[in-house]
Write a sequence for this structure.
């Protein structure tokens, strides 16, 4: 073969080889993109599914996927909805609160409950002895006697007695209302008028509560009845208390509706801390949520004093690139707490967290949102008492619609009623303020 023939042969072959290379490269590139997409989707799914799997396997938390969640972002919304439901109760009303403050809102509630008793509704109520004694308008013996005379069964859990110190731990901090076994309420609010009118010392009282419908209601009902039977030595049970999956439609009118796309399709688990049975469940759920976060963590908590496990989890999340957003209150109902919270928030801010300081009153909400998909809301604070001692209950909600509703509340408050904690705003605080923030850390295990 001559050199001219060899040149022609090579030239004839080049286009074919080049064409095959480009085609193969294109297919490989598309395959890589597909694999990356599948991997990314799998990782997105793992964050929420890992949390659910953890609670199911470690604590046997029952999740159901036929629930509806309605959020209330202030006391007026919560009590309007609750009272509307109470007025329409047909069989049972169960209430469990840290305290019923003896004021106008509790008086109205007790009047409504007494009316339902006359209509044949069984009303059972529990409140905590420490919670009652620690508020400035407690229910006294004659109040309780009067309520019982009106047909309301009401009991105090672990009444404070001398020497008092032996009643300091294991308080009932839960907030649960279950009506006819069909609708339930839980969250951060007790029964007091300051949830509506605020307090003179700091203004508005900001809080989050929720109404639940679906199979998750049975879990709240069981938690109440288990505790009721323990406190009263009764044996209240029966299938009539668990009517099964029923919505409020046709049974209650005038309630705020769930307008999200996942109405009655929300995946919800009830996370209940019983000191002698599930002592670590709340703390470990917070830690597990933080450890599984891949993109973002949003937290609002009034007593952001943090134990070592949660603090370590947040630092690791920041280190791996997760965006951490924290909202704390400038003022509190417990005087020393804001200084301890300031110190914890400042240290996380220096590691990259976005910290917003709420100045529109006192933000008593206890919520956390993970990756715009999972939310954890309820009665539990991020302090030693909630995580180590008290009866607490939260909802783990694996639902993007509810989580986005909570994120909207966070973002509106951040933009309109907060200032951002920065090195500059921290330096503007007085030396005495900063010293207190450092010094009061020694009280972290006790607040």
């Amino acid at each position: 073969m001559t050199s001219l023939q060899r040149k022609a042969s090579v030239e004839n072959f080049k286009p074919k080889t080049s064409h095959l290379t480009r085609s193969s490269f294109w297919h490989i590139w598309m395959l890589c993109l597909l694999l990356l997409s599948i991997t990314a989707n799998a990782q997105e799914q793992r964050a929420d599914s890992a949390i659910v799997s953890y609670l199911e396997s470690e604590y046997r938390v029952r999740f159901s996927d036929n629930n509806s969640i309605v959020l209330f972002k202030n006391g007026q919304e919560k009590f309007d909805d609750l009272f509307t439901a109470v007025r329409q109760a047909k069989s049972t009303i169960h209430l469990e609160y840290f305290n019923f403050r003896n004021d106008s809102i509790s008086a109205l509630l007790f009047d409504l409950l007494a009316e339902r008793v006359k209509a044949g509704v069984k009303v059972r109520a529990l409140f905590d002895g420490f919670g009652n004694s620690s508020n400035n308008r407690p229910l006294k013996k004659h109040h309780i006697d009067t309520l019982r005379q009106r047909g309301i069964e009401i009991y105090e859990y672990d009444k404070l007695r001398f020497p008092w110190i032996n009643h300091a731990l294991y308080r009932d901090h839960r907030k649960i209302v279950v009506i006819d076994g069909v609708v339930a309420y839980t969250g951060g609010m007790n029964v007091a008028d300051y949830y509506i009118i605020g307090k003179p010392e700091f203004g508005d009282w900001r809080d989050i509560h929720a109404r639940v419908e679906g199979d998750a209601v049975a879990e709240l009902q069981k938690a109440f009845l288990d505790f009721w039977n323990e406190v009263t030595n009764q044996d209240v049970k029966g299938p009539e208390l668990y009517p099964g999956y029923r919505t409020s439609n046709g049974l209650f009118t005038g309630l705020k509706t769930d307008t999200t796309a996942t109405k009655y399709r929300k995946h919800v688990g009830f996370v209940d801390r019983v000191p002698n049975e599930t002592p670590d469940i709340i703390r470990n759920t917070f830690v597990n949520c933080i450890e599984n976060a891949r993109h973002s963590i949003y937290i609002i908590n009034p007593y952001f004093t943090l134990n070592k496990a949660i603090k370590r989890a947040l630092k690791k999340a920041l280190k791996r690139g997760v965006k951490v957003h924290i909202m704390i209150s400038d003022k509190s109902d417990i005087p020393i707490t804001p200084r301890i919270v300031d110190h914890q928030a400042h240290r996380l801010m220096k590691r990259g967290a976005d910290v917003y300081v709420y100045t529109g009153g006192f933000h008593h909400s206890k919520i956390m949102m993970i990756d715009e998909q999972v939310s954890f809301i309820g009665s539990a604070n991020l302090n030693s008492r909630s995580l180590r001692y008290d009866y607490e209950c939260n909802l783990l909600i694996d639902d993007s619609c509810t989580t986005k509703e909570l994120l909207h509340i966070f973002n509106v408050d951040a933009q309109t009623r907060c200032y951002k904690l920065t090195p500059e705003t921290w330096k503007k605080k007085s030396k005495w303020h900063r010293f207190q923030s450092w010094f009061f850390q020694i009280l972290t295990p006790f607040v």
User: Anything to note?
Assistant: The chain has 14 helices and 17 strands.
